[in-house]
Design goal:
The complex is a heterodimer of chains A (363) and B (509). Chain A is an all-alpha fold and 363 residues long. Chain A contains 17 helices and 2 strands. In chain A, a hairpin with a 2-residue loop joins strand 1 and strand 2 (210-211). Chain B contains 17 helices and 24 strands. In chain B, strand 16 (314-319) and strand 17 form a beta hairpin. Classes of the chains: A mainly alpha (363), B alpha/beta (509).
Chain lengths: 363, 509
């Protein structure tokens, strides 16, 4: 019955009374707990302490698993896995996944989530299909859906940076609204008519044995790698993700950085949707969630490799490739549709879980 | 008085940390119904004494320790003194602003329960009873965040007397008014008097002397861990008390600035904000000005306003001769203002970033072209900084968290030195830093001022202010209450002014 219990004292000690008064409990404040960079930051410093072999292993463990999977499937399923047609299918199908994952990566680097990208992709397929019915060319419709993706990103960033709602809640809400728009537009039908041949041809055919659809994905990868690793924009976005308070004190325009990352995420998701329509040849509402989780999972898995502890572009590429090969290899056995979600969810848990365990062990 | 058992009787209490004795053979007797003030300078052992009495620290040795006549042959635990009715209210009060009064009270006392379920109506009733005892007229459902600061203190009191006034034998109040505006202190003192009226002994620990003369019956003065004097309040005069507490063993030396001062770099006139009131201050090129004051006096706010982190609502802010109606961080930076915040890891650095990333973040433009960072120039810039300012280990790829506090601080301060700045605003520049790092940071500050920067040092350490500054201003409750220059730059004068605190508000310019 002592009037002061030390734990509760300690908890409040760091904030002055005045400060407490001026900070009501808001969703914005809660968002800190969901900050993806703080999940990763613990691991970061832990890994830094391990030089040498340990550091090497943690850096390339995912790459090693990836190579092992190729070797295993190559040996056990030599007739089906390492065939030109399978690899072409693999590359083609995962180009869209890579672009979406890169889109989702930018807000993650800035310390926020974008859960609306899956729905933006979905809406982009639907809008492109509908525009095609009205004889709008693929080039024009690409510009339109990318502008649409940018608008979704702007809406996200207004809620997050101006109003101060947590990105988790914002993008979940915005994404759900976007899915409603797709549903209204399609009326629940699958749109297949009028999809321009030039688009489907580009997305479904090969040049010199390589699926053409992979080129925009490679383009996005290279540009984002340059932006994130070599530009002041990438560095500032990273700084915001590591500590938005410290970044603000260092003169970084935190709102601008975060806002732009959501806009870019929306644009990339729209591009991914446009390509997806060409690849599949049909558009329907409701596919968003199927795309969302793998993209976010790839970001997190990518943060355990190449530059462990940091969301990074090269790591995301490796992660997308690893999941793609894993799922493809298992599906060749004819196992059912549930393999993909099982793999995606498992990867997400494994990636974040191993990061935490490693951090604890080293500490 | 002689017939009643003392609420507290402590004899020859000694407490050592390592080899250093912070409390030596200290006696303290608090009678029931008495407000007993425990005073002393920083580091005199007040808080250690309180912690021993409340069972949070074990004393190294003591002759006797009795609460209400119950003696403790061994060091008491927090639970055992609580059972005998010792209640402690600390400065930070331990309240959660988002929770209601009832929930805050229940945090410490537990809810009224039956079969594991909370009995809300009964909890509410008991909370009302406790609030009545301290005569706080508030609904138990009111969130604590909506209360005035003195009302929060009253809630903490209500929590202490939850089990009834008879259950309280000794109420220890540890600097509860330190963060309180002057006009609200009166309300708190009123509650303190009420407590004493019910027969509890009150041990009142404070820095504010004017309160002592208003509320205390007896005073015990601690100097270097010893009881210097313990007597009825009538035996003291305010000035005599200040001399007892502050006037000893401090060396005074003359301070001569090494460079003549130039143009005013920073001018604020009647600056007001949420926490500042009519602050006027001028710092000239080459000058180091210190801002001191108690926690919550507004000195950090002043720094934050100048760097554009908090808005100002009135007054003028002039940087390098140009008046600014509004100020933002990028604007302040482009005007050559450097700012080092107090909370190093929380808001100064990217803890999970490397030394290199932290060192170059504030002027990435200098190491990049067309938005592309030059790896080579970035590394050069960081390496130069690490070598020049002796950051150890000298590895720019280390993560900040792997560096000691002193080395982190060196990076945080020195990264502003890559190009000349017009104004340095440093909030607690050497807090939690070892002597070596402190010397390097002082060297940095001195170099910046010789290069023509104006420097504003916001600090809680009088020694630091005296060592660095050409001029010192004292802040209290968001106002500048006094300025010290020339001969007044002496520890004695400043300690005295600080101790007398609000009594002198508005006396000097």
């Amino acid at each position: 019955m002592n009037t002061t219990d030390p734990p509760s004292n300690e908890a409040t000690e760091t904030r002055s009374n005045e400060e407490q008064m001026s900070q009501p409990l808001s969703l914005g404040a809660r968002a800190k707990e969901l900050n993806p960079q703080t999940v990763m930051a613990q691991k970061k410093s832990a890994l830094a302490a391990t030089g040498g072999l340990g550091g090497f292993l943690s850096r390339y463990a995912v790459v090693a698993v990836f190579l092992m999977l190729i070797a295993i499937f190559g040996i056990t399923k030599s007739g089906t896995f390492l065939t030109t047609s399978n690899l072409q299918l693999l590359l083609g199908a995962n180009s869209v996944a890579l672009i979406l994952a890169l889109g989702g990566l930018l807000p993650l680097i800035g310390g926020e989530f974008d859960l609306s990208i899956g729905y933006t992709l979905e809406l982009a397929t639907v809008v492109t299909a509908l525009l095609s019915e009205h004889h709008v060319g693929p080039g024009a419709s690409l510009l339109i859906v990318m502008a649409m993706g940018a608008v979704i990103g702007i809406v996200n960033s207004i809620f997050i940076t101006v109003i101060g709602v947590s990105s988790f809640i914002t993008t979940l809400g915005v994404g759900t609204v976007v899915s409603a728009i797709s549903l209204e537009m399609t009326n629940g039908n699958i749109l297949i008519s009028g999809i321009p041949q030039s688009l489907t041809q580009f997305c479904q055919t090969n040049v010199a044995g390589i699926p053409k659809i992979i080129f925009p994905a490679i383009g996005c990868f290279v540009v984002l790698w340059l932006v994130c690793e070599h530009t002041t924009y990438g560095r500032r976005l990273l700084a915001v993700g590591l500590s938005s308070r410290a970044s603000k004190l260092a003169g970084v325009r935190v709102g601008l950085m975060l806002g732009s990352s959501f806009v870019l995420a929306g644009v990339l998701a729209a591009l991914a949707g446009w390509l997806e329509l060409g690849r599949v040849g049909s558009a329907s509402s409701g596919v968003g969630p199927d795309f969302l989780l793998p993209a976010i999972a790839a970001g997190f898995l990518g943060a355990t490799t190449i530059k462990p502890g940091r969301f990074n572009v090269l790591g995301t590429l490796v992660a997308v490739a690893l999941v793609a090969v894993g799922v493809n290899g298992l599906e060749l056995d004819g196992v059912a549709d549930w393999v993909q979600p099982l793999f995606d969810g498992g990867v997400l848990l494994l990636a974040v879980g191993s990061a935490q365990l490693l951090a604890r062990r080293i500490r | 008085m002689s017939s009643a058992r003392p609420a507290l009787e402590a004899r020859a209490v000694t407490k050592r940390f390592g080899g250093r004795a912070v409390l030596r053979d200290a006696d303290l007797i608090v009678q029931p119904g008495e407000v007993h003030a425990l005073v002393g300078a920083n580091g005199s052992g007040k808080s250690t004494f309180v912690k021993v009495l409340s069972g949070f620290h074990d004393a190294s040795s003591y002759q006797a320790l009795e609460i209400r006549g119950q003696s403790f042959p061994d060091n008491p635990t927090a639970a055992s003194v609580a059972k005998l009715g010792v209640r402690v209210v600390h400065q930070d009060l331990g309240l959660v602003p988002e929770l209601s009064i009832l929930e805050n009270v229940a945090l410490a006392t537990g809810f009224e329960r039956r079969n594991g379920l909370i009995r809300w109506r009964r909890s509410d009733k008991r909370c009302r009873e406790a609030l009545e005892r301290v005569e706080l007229d508030r609904e138990p459902q009111t969130p604590v965040g909506q209360l005035a600061v003195w009302e929060r203190v009253a809630v903490a009191f209500a929590r202490a007397v939850y089990d009834g006034l008879d259950a309280v034998s000794l109420l220890i109040l540890d600097e509860i008014t330190a963060a309180l505006p002057r006009d609200q202190v009166i309300n708190v003192l009123e509650v303190v008097r009420r407590m004493k009226g019910f027969g509890a002994g009150v041990l009142y620990v404070t820095h504010r002397f004017e309160e002592i003369f208003e509320v205390a019956d007896r005073i015990t003065v601690l100097v270097d861990g010893r009881v210097e004097v313990s007597a009825a309040v009538g035996d003291f005069t305010p000035d005599g008390l200040v001399d007892l507490v502050a006037g000893h063993g401090l060396v005074e030396e003359e301070h001569v600035p090494p460079v003549p001062f130039g143009e005013p770099r920073l001018v604020v006139e009647k600056l007001s904000s949420e926490r500042l009131h009519d602050v006027s201050l001028q710092v000239r090129a080459g000058e180091i000005c210190g801002v001191i004051g108690r926690a919550g006096c507004g000195r950090s706010s002043l720094g934050r306003v100048i760097f554009g982190l908090e808005e100002f609502s009135g007054g003028r802010l002039v940087l390098n001769g140009a008046e600014l109606k509004k100020i933002s961080v990028p604007r302040a930076m482009s005007d050559g203002v450097a700012y080092v915040p107090q909370d190093r890891l929380g808001s100064g650095l990217l803890p999970a970033g490397t030394v290199k990333e932290n060192a170059t973040l504030i002027d990435l433009k200098d190491v990049s072209r067309f938005g592309f960072i030059s790896r080579r120039r970035e590394r050069e810039r960081a390496t130069t900084l690490v070598t020049n300012y002796d950051v150890r280990p000298a590895n720019v790829d280390m993560f900040m968290t792997q560096l000691s506090g002193g080395n982190q601080q060196k990076v945080l301060v020195s990264r502003w030195m890559s190009s000349p700045r017009t104004l340095l605003v440093l909030d607690e520049p050497t807090e939690g830093v070892d002597a070596g790092a402190r010397a390097i940071i002082y060297g940095l500050i001195d170099r910046a001022r010789r290069d023509g920067a104006a420097v504003l040092v916001l600090t809680s350490s009088i020694e630091e202010a005296l060592e660095l500054c050409d001029r010192i201003v004292l802040m209290s409750s968001g106002r500048i209450v006094r300025e010290f220059a020339g001969e007044e730059l002496s520890p004695h004068v400043i300690e005295q002014a600080l101790l007398m605190g609000e009594i002198r508000t508005g006396v000097d310019e």
